Amino acid sequence: MSEIYADVAVIGGGAAGLICAGTAARYGKKVVILEKNPKCARKVMITGKGRCNLTNKSDLQQLISAVPKNGRFLYSAFSEFTPDDIIDLVEENGVPTKVERGRRVFPQSDKAVDIVDALVKYALDGGAKIINSPVIDLQSDGNKITRILLEVGAVVADDVVIATGGASYPTTGSTGDGYRFAEKLGHTITPLLPSLVPITVEQGYAAQMQGLSLKNVKVTAVDNDKKGKIIFEDFGEMLFTHFGLSGPIILSMSAHLKNMQKGRYEVFIDMKPALDEKTLDLRLQRDFEKNANKIFQNSLSELLPSKMIPVIVRLSGIPATAKVNQITKEQRQKLGSLIKKLPFTITGFRPISEAIVTSGGVSVKEIEPKTMKSKLIDNLYFAGEVIDVDAYTGGFNLQIAFSTGYVAGKSIGGK
């Protein structure tokens, strides 16, 4: 391939790029998608543990409130292309959906590949073409992008969309290329930080429980810089790892940990959220009566997972070999408090490469919110995670990609 011409060149064949390309193509534009991977939407393939939580069936205000930074910037985009719109789009392309807890929307098949296929079909059926080649550089005259240099040639396009994703999960192709292109063209890139990411903790007992997954626990995070103010509290599933804590509820919590500093934040795990301390104490009394002649470390198997028992026994201060009938009321109540409030001191985030999404990116001050058009370069648009917007878990981040991609495609198509 030498040099080809297109009306629109979309850099990045992910969720935002495919929607953008398919939308612009339906206006009669000649559209090329420049995707460096052999297949499109690699990151979509791994979302929702491979099930693809494609959106959240929320109203406009709920969508905006799920975006902690620059949420108002997305008002027009969310209004133009709603969760119902993406549900309709994938269903029209052969993928029935279902709504689960927390308004999360998944394909009925529980297969992310079905969503990927629907997005690719939408783009190709609209008339867009896919060129599998990395973009090496964008050339400009200061006002417009004049040429896109590829490994296999070059593209000249009237309009260019950067939809390259973030810097998380680089194995899927999100290696931060879009930030480099945008910065070279004069755009401001706000600091890139991990969001929706596992956390590291000070306490070694997290590693002792490595691999243990807990369901229906309550997680509470407090900010010690604000006198222990609760900044996050929710119920869900979590996982202990060799470095600390992970799992859906922990990833959600991480988005609330701003200006991370070692020791600033603490997190408490309530293993029995359905029981208040008094009810739990009654449960412990019944268990202790039943196991009166056992030693303490052998009396908790009906209450706690086996991997957790040695940790709780040690933290309780009760000798592991003490007879249950010798445990005092104070010791029993301390044990109950520990089960209701297992403490961890957060030391930091895991690397951005392990984050679900990137926080930071192209400054929204330099993008027109109603069109996704650059305020600095006449023929440049942005869509998706490359923009400085990120949301909580639950399908909101993919909805950002779909909405901004649609708006960019429609804006270009309607010119």
In brief:
The chain is α+β, with helices and mostly antiparallel strands. The protein has helices spanning 15-25, 42-46, 60-65, 75-80, 83-92, 112-126, 177-184, 205-208, 248-254, 277-290, 309-316, 329-340, 396-413, and strands at 3-11, 31-35, 55-56, 97-100, 104-107, 129-132, 135-140, 145-150, 153-162, 189-195, 199-201, 213-223, 229-240, 244-246, 265-270, 342-349, 357-362, 380-382. It has two domains: 3-194 and 357-413, FAD/NAD(P)-binding domain (3-Layer(bba) Sandwich), CATH 3.50.50; 198-349, no CATH class.
Label this structure with key terms:
alpha+beta, FAD/NAD(P)-binding domain, 2 domains, seven-stranded mixed sheet, six-stranded antiparallel beta barrel, 13 helices, 18 strands, 26% strand
